[in-house]
Amino acid sequence: xxxxxxxxxxxxxxxxxxxxxxxxxxxxxxxxxxxxxxxxxxxxxxxxxxxxxxxxxxxxxxxxxxxxxxxxxxxxxxxxxxxxx
Length: 85
What we know:
The protein is of the alpha/beta class. It has one domain (21-81). The protein is 36% helix and 11% strand. The protein has helices at residues 4-14, 30-40, 57-65; strands spanning 20-22, 48-50, 79-81. The chain has a three-stranded parallel β-sheet, with no helix packed on it. Helix 1 packs parallel to helix 2 (30-40). The relative contact order is 0.21. The mean pLDDT is 76.
């Protein structure tokens, strides 16, 4: 059984209708961002991802921000909400 990053990745992999996800204060780390980034490259339905109150760091934030520069046909703008502790 995996941690929270596995659960999030599985949720996003199986859901095409989820558009908003708030995972604030879930003690997520950089590993969660790597798992999320991999899945979000294929799942373009999510439009809003709130991540404040987690331990992500600048590298993880950059990784997720790069999802907004995917080549066409992706027209998604993923809103990422980060707040420092």
